[in-house]
Amino acid sequence: MNRHSERLRRNLVAGGSTGVLLVLLFLFPTSRNHVASTSVPTATPGVVSTSPGSGDLTVNGTSEGTRYGPVQVRVAIRGHRLVGVTALVYPSSGGRDREISSFALPQLEQEAIAAQSGRIDTVSGATFTSDGYRRSLQSALDAAHFRAAG
Questions:
Q1: Per-residue pLDDT for 100 more than 70?
Q2: Which of 138, 145, 149 is CA-nearest to residue 73?
Q3: Would you say 74 and 58 are in contact if contact means Cβ atoms under 8 Å apart?
Q4: How far is residue 130 from each of residues 18, 69, 83, 137, 141, measured CA to CA in Å?
Q5: How far is Cα 35 from Cα 19, in angstroms, rounded to an integer?
């Protein structure tokens, strides 16, 4: 009977230790990339500059939260043409975020300029960044009252 009690005690200690380790494992955050940062500075949305004689206009879009952090763009409009889109804020907290942004942002910019609108496709592998970019882009175009020249 003494041997049985000793075995039961060891099993309880081993089982309890395993349970505590599992609870700690599930409570420990393994990635901070999935939490949108609220401490990232963003630019004030709206018109940044105008050149009445030339028709040049620069407008910041709204900062759009995504699963991996905020995205905010600035558009440059000359006459009635979208001539540039610059990402002011984008996910960059980790190596993978920077890698995704480095290939997705140039593609999104090229597509926006080619489309002359906010109706652009999602970059494969950068769905959340693409969605935030598209929303910020559209808010900048709306603030500029931009309508592509026919």
A1: yes
A2: 138
A3: yes
A4: 42, 12, 19, 10, 16
A5: 27
Q: Topology of domain 46-143, per CATH?
A: Sufe protein. Chain: A (3.90.1010)
First to last CA, the chain: 92
Residue with tokens 């935030």: 132
Quick: pLDDT tens for 130-146: 999 999 999 999 999 98
Each domain of the chain, given as residue ranges in start order, spans 1-30, 46-143
Residue 7 phi, psi (nearest 5): -65, -40
Token look-up 């942002």 returns 105
Model pLDDT for residues 102-140, shown as the tens digit of each residue:
999 999 999 999 999 999 999 999 999 999 999 999 999
